[in-house]
Amino acid sequence: MKMMQKSLLALAVLATTALNVQAASNVDVKVIGRIDPGTCTPTLSGGGTIDYGTMSPSELAATGLTVLPEKQLDFAIACTAPSKVAVKVVNGRPNTVAGAIEGASGFAGIPASSASLFGSSGSIGVAGLGLSNGVKVGGYGIRIASGTVIADTKSVDNLVASNIASPVWSAAAAGATGSLLASATVRGVSWAATGTTTPVAFTNLSGKLGVQAYLNEKSAFDLTNTVQLDGLSTIELVYLP
């Protein structure tokens, strides 16, 4: 049996080599696609709007960045049949993060001068809050709050893939608190049965999406004029095999 396996392996290598020799006069046509058993729709409460309301200049820290409280929305995904999905985020206000430079993902790492977001100093990425009179207003993080997610009546854990283009799933680190953003690559978040690291299929999932913002240094603003917070991010679903 071992000899047969060795012969088959050698034959496969030789066949591949022979095809490569002829590659200059051949071209492949690939027809690809997929049929998913169901389609999924994400929703956010409040129209997906995080509103910090009207603030007074006196509420800004005298020095350094001003960290605002976390606000949460109800987050849900409804599918027409059990499906495995992940979520990723696309930045709608590129190059506007205050205090940090955005990376290849379109997001930045949390500024070192900032207090922690979500009560954590872990791997938190941030998006920008737009520009006001040419000044970067601030930034904000987005997370799926750990311990809040229910899939088809069962509690599930957050999973994270550091690069959603080639996902390798692991349990979300406690310090990252389910952060959807990272600076180096486009992060993906999915969900697994408690204590496991394989994404589960579900029909209905619900949880809390948290956003926490910070503002640029007070001295950066012309506070004789109104400063608008103008953050925009798009959450996209990624269907998993």
Question: Would you kindly provide a written description of the structure presented here, covering whatever features stand out?
Answer:
The protein is mainly beta. It has one domain. The chain is built from one helix and 15 strands; from the N terminus they run αβββββββββββββββ. Strands 1, 2, 3, 5, 6, 9, 10, 11, 12, 13 and 14 form an eleven-stranded antiparallel beta sheet that branches. A two-stranded antiparallel sheet has the order 4-15. The two termini are 34 Å apart.
Largest sheet: 11 strands, antiparallel
Helix share, percent: under 10%
Number of helical segments? Answer: 1
* Strand segment count: 15
Unreliable stretches (pLDDT < 50, length at least 5) are 1-23
Order of helices and strands: HEEEEEEEEEEEEEEE
Coarse structural class: mainly beta
Average residue-wise pLDDT: 84
Q: How much is the radius of gyration in Å?
A: 23 Å
Global outline = globular
End-to-end gap: 34 Å
Strand content: 25-35%
> What is the number of independent domains?
1
